[in-house]
Amino acid sequence: YLLEPSKMMLIIFALCIVFLNIISLINSYKTYKKNILNNFFYFILYLCALEISPFIILYITLV
Does the pTM exceed 0.90? Predict the structure, then answer.
């Protein structure tokens, strides 16, 4: 049997993924706070390149 995913189910799944990603970033920030503050430029570069841009690309692809 094949389950047809509803739009609401996909939205809930996407929100769960985003929520888990945010929790992971917060835990990483707490663990490496000293290193992040010393290398703030590289931290922002990392966030834009590897954490935020995949969501933007996925959004552009789906919409």
Answer: no
